C-alpha cells in the first residue's frame, strides 16, 4: 500500500519529552495508561481527507499552491484512487487509528445521480480494501451538501425539492457506506443550511424540511442496522450569514423541537465554537450537560481573523481545559479527535502535513496528561463540590422538594439572611496554570 509521495518520511513513533526529533511524538504514547485507559483509547485520533488531500492550497485571492499529483485529475477515477492510496499511507505513517471523509473527497468528480453513485461505489470498494490492509478504521463518514453549485441555497433547506432529493440520495449512499465500512459515527454539517437574507427565506418551511430530513436519516439508520451515532456539527455562520445549527445549545433546541434529542449528538469543532463567541470548553461542557456530547473536530482559529481558519491546535492550556470537560462528560464512546485542520497555503511540502499533525496530536496528548493531573490533584473538584454543598444539606433538600410558594414560605420561616461567598476564581486559575506549566 506504500506510495512514493511520503517515501522519505518514516512512521511517526513516540520518543518521549526529551526527544529532539521533530517528527516524533513527545507526549502521545498510545499505549500509556491514563485514568484507567490507554491514550489511544481516550483520544481516538483521526485525520481527514478534505483539508489534507483535497484542498489544493487556494484562497479567494489565488490558485492552489500544493500541486499534488492527484489534483490535476479531478474527473479521473485513477487520480481518485491514487489520492485514496496516498491518504492511507499517511494515516499509517502518522499511526492514527481512524480517518474521516465526505463522499466527494474520495471519488472522481461526477455529473448527475448515476455517475455520482457509480464513482462513489467504486471509491467505497477501494476504501474497504485499504482499511483491511492498513488496519485503519472509519471514525465517521458524511456527504458534502455544500460545495457543488446546486447546493448554493443549501441541501436539506433548499427551496428546490429536486436539490433536496439529490441531497437525500447522497446522504443515503454515504450513510450506507459508513455502515458498510464499520464507521463509528455519521456526521451532518449544515454548511449552507441557513440564510443570506430573510427577504427571500421562509424560515418555518426550511426548519421543518431540515427537521424532516434529519428524522429520515435517523429512520434510515435504524432500518439498515447502523449502530453508530448520528452527529450534527454546530457552526454560527460562514458560508451563510446565519446557520440554523448556530451552536450546541441551538442544536439541542432544534433536536427537542423535532423529537430527536435522544437520537442525535454533536460533533464540536474548536474554531466553530470561537466563531459563535464561546470557548471550546464551553461548547463541550454544554453538550455534556445536555447529554448530547459526541465527537470533536480539533483545530483553532486566529484571534485577529473573524473567519474559520482551520489551523492546527497549538495551545496546551486550551486543550487541557477541553479534555478536562470531555472527561467530565464521560469521555468518548463512539467519538474521537478528528483533525479538521489544514496546513497554511505556503506550507506546500509533503512533510508539512506531518509537522502539522504531529504537533496537534502532541498538544492534545499533553492536554490529556494535564487534565488527568488536575483530576488526580483533586483541588478543583473539591472547590466545586464545596461551592454547591448546601444543595446536599437539609435546607437544600427541602428546597428541592417544594413548589415556589413552599420555598418562599421556608425562607420566611427560617428567616434566612444569606451572605455572598467567594468563587475562588483566582485560586482556581493558579492551580490550572501551575499544572499546565509544570
UniProtKB/TrEMBL annotation:
<keyword id="KW-0119">Carbohydrate metabolism</keyword>
<feature type="binding site">
    <location>
        <position position="233"/>
    </location>
    <ligand>
        <name>Mg(2+) 1</name>
    </ligand>
</feature>
<feature type="active site">
    <location>
        <position position="105"/>
    </location>
</feature>
<dbReference type="GO" id="GO:0000287">
    <property type="term" value="F:magnesium ion binding"/>
</dbReference>
<feature type="binding site">
    <location>
        <position position="308"/>
    </location>
    <ligand>
        <name>Mg(2+) 2</name>
    </ligand>
</feature>
<protein>
    <recommendedName>
        <fullName>Xylose isomerase</fullName>
        <ecNumber>5.3.1.5</ecNumber>
    </recommendedName>
</protein>
<dbReference type="GO" id="GO:0005737">
    <property type="term" value="C:cytoplasm"/>
</dbReference>
<dbReference type="InterPro" id="IPR013452">
    <property type="entry name" value="Xylose_isom_bac"/>
</dbReference>
<feature type="binding site">
    <location>
        <position position="269"/>
    </location>
    <ligand>
        <name>Mg(2+) 2</name>
    </ligand>
</feature>
<dbReference type="InterPro" id="IPR036237">
    <property type="entry name" value="Xyl_isomerase-like_sf"/>
</dbReference>
<feature type="binding site">
    <location>
        <position position="297"/>
    </location>
    <ligand>
        <name>Mg(2+) 1</name>
    </ligand>
</feature>
<keyword id="KW-0413">Isomerase</keyword>
<dbReference type="GO" id="GO:0009045">
    <property type="term" value="F:xylose isomerase activity"/>
</dbReference>
<dbReference type="GO" id="GO:0042732">
    <property type="term" value="P:D-xylose metabolic process"/>
</dbReference>
<feature type="active site">
    <location>
        <position position="102"/>
    </location>
</feature>
<feature type="binding site">
    <location>
        <position position="340"/>
    </location>
    <ligand>
        <name>Mg(2+) 1</name>
    </ligand>
</feature>
<keyword id="KW-0460">Magnesium</keyword>
<comment type="subunit">
    <text>Homotetramer.</text>
</comment>
<comment type="similarity">
    <text>Belongs to the xylose isomerase family.</text>
</comment>
<feature type="binding site">
    <location>
        <position position="310"/>
    </location>
    <ligand>
        <name>Mg(2+) 2</name>
    </ligand>
</feature>
<dbReference type="InterPro" id="IPR001998">
    <property type="entry name" value="Xylose_isomerase"/>
</dbReference>
<keyword id="KW-0859">Xylose metabolism</keyword>
<feature type="binding site">
    <location>
        <position position="272"/>
    </location>
    <ligand>
        <name>Mg(2+) 2</name>
    </ligand>
</feature>
<keyword id="KW-0479">Metal-binding</keyword>
<feature type="binding site">
    <location>
        <position position="269"/>
    </location>
    <ligand>
        <name>Mg(2+) 1</name>
    </ligand>
</feature>
<keyword id="KW-0963">Cytoplasm</keyword>
